[in-house]
UniProtKB/TrEMBL annotation, chain A:
A Gene Ontology BP annotation from the UniProt entry: fatty acid biosynthetic process
GO cellular component labels: acetate CoA-transferase complex
Pathway membership, UniProt: Lipid metabolism; malonyl-CoA biosynthesis; malonyl-CoA from acetyl-CoA: step 1/1
Cofactor dependence: Zn(2+)
Family annotation (Gene3D superfamilies): 2-enoyl-CoA Hydratase, Chain A, domain 1 (3.90.226.10)
UniProt subunit comment: Acetyl-CoA carboxylase is a heterohexamer composed of biotin carboxyl carrier protein (AccB), biotin carboxylase (AccC) and two subunits each of ACCase subunit alpha (AccA) and ACCase subunit beta (AccD).
Protein name according to UniProt: Acetyl-coenzyme A carboxylase carboxyl transferase subunit beta
Biological function: Component of the acetyl coenzyme A carboxylase (ACC) complex. Biotin carboxylase (BC) catalyzes the carboxylation of biotin on its carrier protein (BCCP) and then the CO(2) group is transferred by the transcarboxylase to acetyl-CoA to form malonyl-CoA.
Chief localization: cytoplasm
Keyword Lipid biosynthesis: yes
Keywords, comma-separated and alphabetical: ATP-binding, Cytoplasm, Fatty acid biosynthesis, Fatty acid metabolism, Ligase, Lipid biosynthesis, Lipid metabolism, Metal-binding, Nucleotide-binding, Transferase, Zinc, Zinc-finger
TrEMBL record, chain B:
Full protein name: Acetyl-coenzyme A carboxylase carboxyl transferase subunit alpha
UniProt keyword Glycoprotein, yes or no: no
Organism this protein belongs to: Pseudothauera lacus
Function statement: Component of the acetyl coenzyme A carboxylase (ACC) complex. First, biotin carboxylase catalyzes the carboxylation of biotin on its carrier protein (BCCP) and then the CO(2) group is transferred by the carboxyltransferase to acetyl-CoA to form malonyl-CoA.
InterPro entries reported in the protein's UniProt record: Acetyl_CoA_COase_a_su, ClpP/crotonase-like_dom_sf, COA_CT_C
Catalytic reactions on record: N(6)-carboxybiotinyl-L-lysyl-[protein] + acetyl-CoA = N(6)-biotinyl-L-lysyl-[protein] + malonyl-CoA
């Protein structure tokens, strides 16, 4: 416990403990998960949930993300009609259907992806965004289908397609159906290329497994948020396999940039400007006023 | 080669030991016991048949991993002629967990690509237990592009626990290597026929399994995560692997009924490892059939059909949005 925390009046501490979810704390105060600075919540939000003290990018919800990314006017959702079923009647310690309804209750989402059409600084786009709070942003049939419907909308209207990832990988409870979403989503991306439509991926914390190993690195431009964990296998699995300690910063955005795996790291607060700039450059449009 | 028995085959192992013993006795015995041996052998055969008629998914997973199971290079020899292995990704290394090369199939030129496990300890290590690194997938990609260039059909054989989870593999872009294969295979302008011959372990399997026809051997498995992995995450105990295998649906029969694969290729009595030649023969027939179905399609039709197949994966429902 830091000295600052010890000084905090109990009320503030309670706000922090009672927060059901670390990334979306309720109450007036919030603590940065990286530098432990105690932040006034509205300050943090107006800073797009980037810690003003240390620059740590906190995880954010899909709709909050789309809110800050897309222009306020004229946006609408795609694929919300697609909702999950339980094709294998899957049951471990809990039924899959129970997990689905619990996740639905917690997040008010039907599955782990929200797709919207709209504009970024007036540049029209379709954006698919993972919801990590819904079963770890895992990719099952609904995520795959919503992604494809988004890509399809972009294809038909000749718009760029952006995907923002935040996921642990494939959804085990849908078995091989989940694995097949990897080839399904990636195939949808090939269509965009046929029409020379830009596909940009933004990898946020975390981007692992089946999503990382499908379309995530197939973007014309692959962007990461600072400090995001990005990789195929999880660090614990690797550590158990190779039986050695992983290097400092392994599988973080900065490490991937160093290794040549991604194009650039973009601060969330510059994201709108960067994306509209990249999109206009790729499509040979004049620059837009940010 | 002496058959290695799996845990659930104890009754077969006992019987085999008995037969062995009688044979040994027979050599220096005045009494003719060949009749008794023949009787026991017939019994062993029918016992094998009964046992294999009702394997659980977890037992099937054991058969799929059997150390004597035929691997890609066995099929390359038994099904194809003139197999010419080609090596390397032209960038980093030759990954021996994936093999590939030119060959002839029923006299027609083709490309053969597959995971390869090792037989003895030394080879197992050299082939990294069939777990490819990025350079393996990039070699496969290079060979697929070559096949496209020369208009050769591609046969892939899947048999891997999964892509290797190592430091170097991550550094060299394991994710990108797998994703890139999925991307290119979705639009490769030649027929692709995939057979899951042993373990179809997740993304590491799928990276060479995007195909026009996907078939599975009867006792092969194909899954999003290994039963052990699934059990340790969802049940918090790897011991629940058999339950996980049951519920995940990893067997050929189950996946066929779910519409996730096109065809199940039956194995010889007691599994492919008991009769490589017999297995290769039925697989060759199945491959011939599969290829014939694709042969008459134009490249455009082929790609259209493949795309539709890929888009059809998934189960969900649609409801009115409020």
């Amino acid at each position: 416990m830091s000295w600052l925390q010890k000084l905090l009046p109990p009320k503030i501490k309670r706000a922090e403990v009672s927060a059901r979810n670390k990334s979306i704390p309720e109450g007036l105060w919030s603590k940065c998960t990286a530098c432990e600075a105690v932040l006034y919540r509205s300050d943090l939000e107006s800073n797009l949930n980037v810690c003003p003290k240390c620059g740590h990018h906190q995880r954010i919800r899909a709709r909050a993300r789309l809110d800050m990314l897309l222009d306020a006017e004229g946006r609408f959702e795609i694929g919300a009609e697609v909702v999950p079923v339980d094709p294998l009647k899957f049951k471990d310690s809990r039924r899959y259907t129970e997990r689905l309804s619990a996740a639905n209750k917690d997040t008010e989402e039907a599955d782990a992806m929200v797709v919207m059409q709209g504009a970024i600084n007036t540049v029209p786009v379709v954006v698919a965004c993972f919801e990590f709070e819904f079963l770890g942003g895992s990719m099952g049939s609904v995520v795959g289908e919503r992604f494809v419907r988004g890509a399809q909308a972009a294809y038909e209207q000749r718009l760029p397609f952006i995907c923002i990832t935040a996921t642990g990988g494939a959804r085990m409870q849908e078995g091989l159906f989940s694995l097949m979403q990897m080839s399904k989503t990636t195939a949808a991306v090939t269509r965009l290329a046929q029409r020379k439509l830009p596909f940009i991926t933004l990898l946020t914390d975390p981007t692992m497994g089946g999503v990382s190993a499908s379309f995530a690195f197939m973007g014309d431009v692959v962007i990461a948020e600072p400090g995001a964990l990005i990789g195929f296998a999880g660090p614990r699995v690797i550590e158990q396999t190779v039986r050695e300690k992983l290097p400092e910063g392994f599988q973080r955005s900065e490490f991937l940039l160093e290794k040549g795996a991604i194009d650039l790291i973009v601060d969330r607060r510059q994201l709108r400007t960067k994306l509209s700039e990249l999109l206009t450059l790729l499509t040979r449009q004049p620059a837009v006023e940010a | 080669m002496k058959t290695i028995f799996l845990d659930f085959e104890q009754s077969l192992a006992d019987l085999a030991a008995k037969i062995e013993e009688l044979r040994f006795v027979q050599d220096d015995s005045a009494v003719d016991i060949s009749e008794e041996i023949a009787r026991l052998e017939a019994k062993s055969q029918s016992l094998t048949k009964d046992l294999y008629a009702k394997l659980t998914p977890w037992q099937i997973a054991q058969v799929a991993r059997h150390p004597q199971r035929p691997y890609t290079l066995d099929y390359a020899e038994l099904i194809f002629t003139d197999f010419e292995e080609l090596h390397g990704d032209r960038a980093f290394a030759d990954d021996k967990a994936i093999v590939g090369g030119l060959a002839r199939f029923n006299g027609q030129s083709c490309m053969v690509i597959g995971h390869q496990k090792g037989r003895d300890t030394k080879e197992k290590i050299a082939r990294n237990f069939g777990m490819p690194r990025p350079e393996g997938y990039r070699k496969a990609l290079r060979l697929m592009k070559m096949a496209e260039k020369f208009g050769l059909p591609v046969f892939t054989f899947v048999d891997t626990p999964g892509a290797y989870p190592g430091i170097g593999a991550e550094e060299r872009g394991q994710s990108e290597a797998i994703g890139h294969n999925l991307y290119v295979m979705a639009e490769l302008k030649v027929p692709i026929v995939t057979t899951i011959i042993g373990e179809g372990g997740s993304g590491g399997a799928l990276a060479i399994a995007v195909a026009d026809q996907v078939q599975m051997l009867q006792y092969a498995t194909y899954s999003v995560i290994s039963p052990e992995g699934c059990a340790s995450i969802l049940w918090k105990s790897a011991e629940k692997a058999s339950e996980a295998a049951e519920t995940m649906g990893i067997t050929a029969a189950r996946l066929k009924s779910l519409g996730l694969i096109d065809k199940v290729v039956n194995e010889p009595v007691g599994g492919a490892h008991r009769d490589h030649r017999g297995m290769a023969q039925s697989l060759k027939r199945a491959l011939t059939d599969s290829l014939r179905q694709l042969a008459d399609l134009s490249p455009t039709q082929l790609l259209e059909q493949r795309y539709e197949k890929l888009m059809a994966y998934g189960r969900f429902k649609e409801q009115k949005v409020a």
